[in-house]
Design a protein that fits this description.
Blueprint (H helix, E strand, L loop, with lengths): L6 H11 L12 H9 L1 H18 L5 H16 L2 H15 L4 H9 L5 H23 L8 H16 L8 H7 L3 H18 L1 H22 L4 H21 L2
Length: 246
């Protein structure tokens, strides 16, 4: 394995998951798309390092102010990509009334409904409170780990859950995931997570179990929106678990 072989996949992952300029791509192969998923956790760690900067730069700032800055930067650097998936999933789940086609149609609608708006407000409130609690508990460094685990959950979703839309861009990623390497990345992510916060990762895995069941029951698999929702919910559950059991 040559590091040069992962340059394009890394830039592809960076451009997909963040608003960080990653340059232009002359040619992207299906293998590059598959390899890019292996680097999602690394991109998550980069996001984590960036959102942790306010804690280092303003160590004496009030925790509420720091938390507000961190959550804002978090949303800006990701372009609200996964938050959009969260709101679309909430709208689809409530408005779909158990019907797969209706649920998918609602999730594709760019207009945010009442369920999506309520879910977004509640989620951001929980995220803000969790970040505040981590700062006040001298566990602010765990903020860096949350995005890493969140992006690792994308890989876990792709490995364990069929993709509902066979024509989607993510389906190319799923079909070209390097088998052995992807499991190695998942195991490494789990080890890191359990080492820094056993209860945080345990809560994430419990949450994923139920999210996956919902995806399979309602949609027959995952979609880009439900993967985005999984990222956001996993990040929040990790931080909640870390602060609830200190």
């Amino acid at each position: 394995m040559k590091l040069q072989d992962y340059k394009t996949p890394f830039l592809l992952a960076l451009s997909l998951l963040t608003r960080i300029p990653a340059g232009s791509f002359t040619e992207i192969t299906d293998k590059d798309s598959g390899k890019s998923a292996l680097l999602y956790p690394l991109v998550g760690l980069i996001i984590g390092a960036i959102i942790y900067l306010p804690v280092l730069l303003f160590p004496n700032a009030p925790s509420l102010v720091l938390a507000a800055i961190i959550v804002t930067i978090w949303a800006i650097i990701t372009g609200g990509l996964h938050l959009d998936g969260l709101t679309d999933s909430a709208d689809g789940w409530l408005g779909g009334l158990g019907d797969q086609e209706r649920t998918l149609k609602i999730m594709k609608d760019p207009v945010v409904g009442a369920a999506g708006a309520i879910a977004l407000v509640c989620f951001l409130l929980l995220k803000f409170v969790s970040v505040t609690a981590l700062i006040e508990s001298d566990l602010a460094w765990l903020i860096m780990v949350a995005p890493l685990l969140g992006r690792t959950m994308i890989l876990l979703t792709f490995k364990t859950t069929p993709y509902a839309n066979k024509q989607g861009m993510a389906n190319t990623v799923v079909e070209n995931l390097p088998e052995n390497t992807s499991w190695a990345v998942l195991i490494a992510g789990a080890v890191i997570g359990f080492f820094v916060s056993f209860w945080g990762v345990l809560l994430v895995l419990i949450g994923f179990y139920f999210l996956r069941r919902l995806m399979l029951k309602r949609l027959g698999g995952c979609t880009g929106d439900t993967v985005g929702a999984t990222v956001e919910i996993s990040e929040m559950l990790f931080m909640l678990g870390a602060v609830l059991v200190v």
